[in-house]
User: Which sequence fits this backbone?
């Protein structure tokens, strides 16, 4: 198989959708020698902020000389973004080799009417890749929920649950307590948990940590304070368990303070368990970290911001960031959302602050039709562009230097937008 054939074969499993459960991933991994047991894992779950925390951790650990793998999903532009070791994506040759290893197992499962999902296959590939490359640490991001997510066969040294808000209610449950219970399913016996959960969700999480005798570190508003910043940088004072940290980041959004606090609590827990990490690497690692497609500024005059806000909490954070951190004359919103999201609730949050809305869609099969989005938006001028490239061209045409273009609604929308802007 060549790389194109490999990717095509993998994506042929997307039609099987989401099938939560651990039996299939355990079967695949057992057949290839349980690679997930051959390296130290930090398991990262929660609603928002997972990707940023993963990248902050990787940056700090890599600066200390450790070989660090990061497994995240979905990818923004390239499939290879899902498998990263020390900032380097997996090569096409390596991806082909991994598929060739698991394909006979998958073929047999299909024959036995036990077909795995796309995510289960890719997760097994990630575990094998990190094992083959002998990583010191693997930072593993949960795909969906936690309890029955394919990543939940790892035995982590630390678990992180960033926060909990309403998402995937058709799968995880209608109430915040139900979603918290599913996400708390990654908590393991006697394994430290770092979390930024609050209100009703923290009650669920605390109950489970007590049952499992898992040491709990809770990150809240008192854990961090923003002390400076500009259009494309921020400075925070983080109150750790061991000391205070004065850190700078080029990642915008005040909520990054929570992500950094979660990261530093994790780093301190590693230090207390004997992992050597310098203060210099913490400061430098935070400052160097980037998370493409999440509050990413890709242009000035006018400012162009990419943010993959794809749920209610993400859209609320985006709105607050725009209101608090940016000065502009008009906000031009380029919006593309997946049809299975809480669309009306997301629109109700962001639409009131926009001066112009351009609705569009990614090439993802789940993308909502722009005409449907337009019907859900009232009292504003709405422009329909069926191609993201056309939506961006129109936004740039009508925008003045003092305006602000925000492209959001889905990571798939943002990924395609980023690719197009890189060509311009």
Assistant:
């Amino acid at each position: 198989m060549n790389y194109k054939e490999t990717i095509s074969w993998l994506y042929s499993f997307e039609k099987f959708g989401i099938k939560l459960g651990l039996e299939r991933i355990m079967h695949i991994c057992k057949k290839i020698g349980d690679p997930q047991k051959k390296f130290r894992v930090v398991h990262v779950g929660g609603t928002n902020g997972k990707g940023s925390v993963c990248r902050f951790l990787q940056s700090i650990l890599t600066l200390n000389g450790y070989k660090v793998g990061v497994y995240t999903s979905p990818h923004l532009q390239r499939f290879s973004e899902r498998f990263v070791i020390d900032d380097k994506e997996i090569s096409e040759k390596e991806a082909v080799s991994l598929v060739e290893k698991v394909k006979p197992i998958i073929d047999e499962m299909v024959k036995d009417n036990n077909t795995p999902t796309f995510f289960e296959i890719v997760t097994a590939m990630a575990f094998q890749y990190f094992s083959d490359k002998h990583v010191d640490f693997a930072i593993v991001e949960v795909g969906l929920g936690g309890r029955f997510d394919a990543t939940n066969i790892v035995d982590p040294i630390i678990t992180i649950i960033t926060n909990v808000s309403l998402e995937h209610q058709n799968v995880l449950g209608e109430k915040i307590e139900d979603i918290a219970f599913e996400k708390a399913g990654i908590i393991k016996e006697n394994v430290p948990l770092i979390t930024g959960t609050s209100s009703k969700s923290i009650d669920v999480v605390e109950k489970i940590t007590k049952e499992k005798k898992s040491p709990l570190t809770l990150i809240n508003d008192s854990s961090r304070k923003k002390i400076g910043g500009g259009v494309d940088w921020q400075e925070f004072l983080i109150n750790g368990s061991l000391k205070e940290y004065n850190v700078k980041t080029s990642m915008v959004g005040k909520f990054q303070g929570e992500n950094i606090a979660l990261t530093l609590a994790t780093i301190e827990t590693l230090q207390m368990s004997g992992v050597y990490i310098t203060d210099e690497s913490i400061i430098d690692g935070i400052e160097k970290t980037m998370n493409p497609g999440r509050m990413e500024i890709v242009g000035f005059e006018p400012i162009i911001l990419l943010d993959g806000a794809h749920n209610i909490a993400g859209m609320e954070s985006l709105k607050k960031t725009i209101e608090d951190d940016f000065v502009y004359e008009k906000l031009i919103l380029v919006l593309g959302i997946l049809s299975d999201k809480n669309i009306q609730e997301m629109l109700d949050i962001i639409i009131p602050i926009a001066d112009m809305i351009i609705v569009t869609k990614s090439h993802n099969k789940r993308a909502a039709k722009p005409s449907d989005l337009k019907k859900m938006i009232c009292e504003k001028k709405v422009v329909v562009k069926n191609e993201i490239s056309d939506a961006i061209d129109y936004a740039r045409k009508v925008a003045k230097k003092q305006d602000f273009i925000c492209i959001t609604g889905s990571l798939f929308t943002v990924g395609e937008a980023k690719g197009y802007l890189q060509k311009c």
Summary: The CA atoms of residues 24 and 114 lie 8 Å apart. The chain has two domains: 3-288, 296-423. The mean pLDDT is 95.
